[in-house]
Write a structure and sequence with these properties.
- This protein has three domains: about 80 residues, Elongation Factor Tu (Ef-tu), domain 3 (Beta Barrel), CATH 2.40.30.20; about 80 residues, Beta Barrel (Elongation Factor Tu (Ef-tu), domain 3); about 30 residues, no CATH class.
- The chain contains four helices and twelve strands, in the order βββββαββββββαβαα.
- β7 and β8 form a beta hairpin.
- The longest helix has 13 residues.
- It starts with 7 loop residues before the first strand and ends with a helix.
């Protein structure tokens, strides 16, 4: 599990095909890393398989390459990195699994003082999990949703986030990895499989709170 608070950025040094998947080499000063530990790379949970001075290697499956941006990220591009959280650490972001739900694209970018308001497109099927003032992960970065539509949402990127993550490098049209709030997914499961005969009061409370 992760929090969406990026520890450092790295550089995609190489992507070597291995059958339908690929071996990724990430150059970074983050660490020391241990073999087998999990690292979120632009929001994708990968397992460290090899470590050398200033870099690590991880395998990406065909599914990961097809369903995230890692299959098309340019060699030399900056990527966001976060090691798995420790029990007892401060929870500064939100609960992030590192399992990407889909990809979107940067649709617009407008300055707001020193900050930047960014609008991202998203698959329509993800919109029901995204709420105003809720949380969403964009390329591994935990962000608060300002506004949400049927197929897009707005977030504000503060100067530190622009500087210390890859979000400040995005051009219009750039693809991004998206992970919706895990709590929203479990809530949907609870509601869709509830027994109306025994859970009427609980469902009514969810409706009053705006979850339904």
């Amino acid at each position: 599990m992760f929090t969406g608070l990026v520890e450092a950025t790295g550089t995609l040094e190489a992507r070597q095909s291995r059958g339908p998947g690929a071996r990724l080499t990430i150059a970074t000063a983050i660490g020391p890393l241990s073999l087998g530990e999990s690292v979120a790379v632009d929001g994708c949970c990968l397992t460290v398989d090899s470590v050398r001075d200033g870099a690590f290697e991880a395998d990406a499956s065909a599914e990961t390459l097809a369903k995230t941006t890692l299959g098309a990220t340019a060699v030399g591009a900056r990527v966001n990195l976060e090691r798995a959280m420790k029990l007892g650490d401060r929870m500064g972001g939100h609960i992030v699994s590192g399992h990407v739900d889909g990809t979107g694209a940067l649709a617009s970018r407008e300055p707001s003082g020193d900050a930047m308001v960014m609008r991202f497109s998203m698959p329509k099927e993800l919109a029901r999990y995204v709420a105003q003032k809720g949380s969403i992960t964009v390329c591994g970065v935990s962000l608060t949703v300002n506004d949400v539509g049927d197929a897009s949402f707005d977030v504000t990127i503060i100067p530190r986030t622009q500087r210390d993550t890859s979000l400040g490098d995005l051009a219009l049209g750039s693809r991004v990895n998206l992970e919706v709030d895990l709590v929203a997914r479990y809530l949907e499961r609870l509601v869709t499989h509830a027994d109306p005969s025994s859970d009427d009061a609980w469902l009514a409370r969810l409706k009053r709170a705006g979850y339904m």
